[in-house]
Amino acid sequence: MNFRQVRKKIKTISNVAKITKAMQMIAAVKMKRAIAQALEGKLYRKTLDDILREVLSQVDGSLTVDIPLLRTNTASKTLYILITSSKGLCGGFNVNVLKHLSANTDFKNAHFITIEKKGGAFLRRVGASIIADFSVVDAGVDIISAVFKVAEQGYLEGIYGDVKIVYNDFVSSFKYVPVITSLLPVLSVDSLRLEETAKETSLAHYLIEPSPNEILPTLIKDVLHEKIRSAILDSAAAEQSARMMAMKQATDAASDLIVGLTLLSNKLRQQSITYELLDIISAQTV
């Protein structure tokens, strides 16, 4: 490699570094917005979940017979709602969640609802069954009702014994963890009553009007909608965090390459000057 080739390579890498730096800054701005969206509803979702637990623990178990979402199914198949990303350049964001899914899933007894493109592409390669694909719709949380409707219909028809959500859980700006959480079935009244009995303190007791059978179906659906919303928002925040870190690593790697190539360029330039001086001295000697 001669001096001109090295200088050309330095210029090319410098241009790439400018691009990755810009992408890092864009991802940082998007991450900040995504984190705000993910965090602002956490208290509401936790309170809603606590209210559901408290109400279910207080009602008579016989009243829940008419609430379909509280029934358990014996079906062997499991429905997974897989949340990935539609774009790349985000490090191991998609790879980690897909590895976690593969290690904990029997694809023969599983059906999938996919959100964003990468998960759908992976499932098609492994021959998994996709019953609904929301990859072509970049609607964010606007698809929650449609996703829940498909999952609810399959569960109430007895096709699936479980409905689970697979996504990257946002922990901090530099950390995210792939998780599999249960959406359906909702915890039974008996198990919730045992939880309340084991607690030393309990939440406030509620006066339920007009009746649990009229209030609980709506409350349960709201809680399940919020679980899907939380997973989508956490995944979006984790994606931007992963992209920001990946672009920072790319920028740092480019900077290291530029330093190394600059040293090589200086060495080649000095070598060229030395050879020219030797030629001049040799010519004068002759």
UniProtKB/TrEMBL annotation:
It is found in: Membrane. It holds the Pfam family ATP-synt. Keywords: ATP synthesis, CF(1), Hydrogen ion transport, Ion transport, Membrane, Transport. CDD domains: F1-ATPase_gamma (cd12151). It is a peripheral membrane protein. One of its GO terms (cellular component) is proton-transporting ATP synthase complex. Its main location: membrane. GO terms for molecular function: proton-transporting ATP synthase activity, rotational mechanism. Produces ATP from ADP in the presence of a proton gradient across the membrane. The gamma chain is believed to be important in regulating ATPase activity and the flow of protons through the CF(0) complex. Belongs to the ATPase gamma chain family. This is ATP synthase F1 subunit gamma.
